[in-house]
Amino acid sequence: MKRPFRTFASLVGVAVVVFGGLLAATSPASADPPPPCYGASCNGKDPHALGCDGWVAYTIASFPVNYGSSTVLLRYSTWCHANWTTVSTPGSNLGVLAWAENTYGDRYYTNAVDGGNTWTAMVNGIPLARSCAVDNVGYSFANPGCTGWN
């Protein structure tokens, strides 16, 4: 009498395993999209236009310029493995020329002249990088303000 129940239970078990396997085999895997550029291929490209900014980027270091009216930020994208410099100026400023550079010699500039945020193109973020700036107050080309190498 127990044999028909065992047969039925075995068939149900096999059906569950087979159906589960088919369901798993037909489910598409969700993978993160590849970055639009990576490391050296990001050189000279706009981080905002390519999406290397936002939730995949953070500020590594910063320093004030123009008596603190502006802030120079070294930004890094974990997705694109690239750095860039952002100059944040809430109001009008006295003018800031800032750049991002890496130890490979890649360097890109931006000129912040009046309010808002401006940024440089990206540099390869695999080697060390830093942000530097000159202003009309305390930093000059002979003595620029810079973050450390990060």
Give short descriptive properties of this protein:
single chain, alpha+beta, 7-stranded antiparallel β-sheet, 7 strands, globular
In words, what does this structure look like?
With 150 residues, the chain is an alpha+beta fold. The protein has one domain. The chain is built from two helices and seven strands. It has helices at residues 2-26, 47-50; strands spanning 57-65, 70-77, 82-102, 107-119, 123-124, 129-135, 145-146. Strands 1, 2, 3, 4, 5, 6 and 7 form a seven-stranded antiparallel beta sheet that branches. The radius of gyration is 27 Å and the shape is globular.
Major sheet details: 7 strands, antiparallel
- Counting DSSP E segments of at least 2 residues, the number of strands comes to 7
State the low-pLDDT regions, or none: 5-9, 11-27
The amount of helix comes to 10-25%
Strand content: 35-45%
Taking all Cα atoms into account, the compactness measure Rg is: 27 Å
Q: How many DSSP helices?
A: 2
Large-scale geometry:
globular
- What is the number of independent domains? 1
Mean pLDDT: 84
From N to C, what is the helix and strand string?
A: HHEEEEEEE
